[in-house]
Specification:
The chain is an all-alpha fold. It has one domain (4-147). Helices cover 69% and strands 0% of the residues. It has helices at 4-13, 18-24, 27-30, 34-41, 45-48, 56-69, 77-98, 103-107, 114-122, 125-128, 130-149. Helix 1 (4-13) runs antiparallel to helix 11 (130-149) and helix 2 packs parallel to helix 11 (130-149). The longest helix is centred in the middle third of the chain and has 22 residues, at 77-98.
Amino acid sequence: MDTRADEAVSCFMRGYNCAQAVSSVFAGDAGVPEEVILGIATGFGGGVGHTGGTCGAVSGAVIAIGLLFGTTGPDEKEAKDLTYEITREFVTRFAEKNGTVSCTELLGCDLSTAEGLARARKENLTRTRCPRYVRDAVEILEGVLAPVTSGQSTMR
C-alpha cells in the first residue's frame, strides 16, 4: 500500500511541481477538490516561480496547513495562531532535516538565473534531488499534524 508520501513523489514524477505534489495529497483531508489545490500551488514550484526562494515542497505543505487550519475571517485569532504554530514547527523540522528551506540551497544552483535553470535541467537536479524533499515534506507534515489531529474527525 502506497503511503501519502509515495503518492506525492509519484505525482511529482508524473510532471506536477513540488508544491502541487505535496499539497494535493492533503486535498481530501481539507475537503477541497484536488484540481483546486493543483491550480493554487502551481506558482510555488521552483522556489516560487523559479525564483529559487522557499522550496516548493515546503510551500505545498504550508498551503496544506492553511487549507486544514487557516482562518476564513479576521477575528479567528486562535485559528491563525494555531496555523502559525504548525507552520513554524513544520519549517523548523524541514530545515533541521535538510539544512535549509531555500530552493537555491537545496538544489545547489539558482533557478532564477538562465545559467542556474540550464544547469538544473542539464544535471536533472529536480528529478534526482527534489523527490526526497517532496517525500520529506509530506512525512514531516504528517508528523507535525498527528498530535493536532488525533481523535478529530475533521481538521477544521
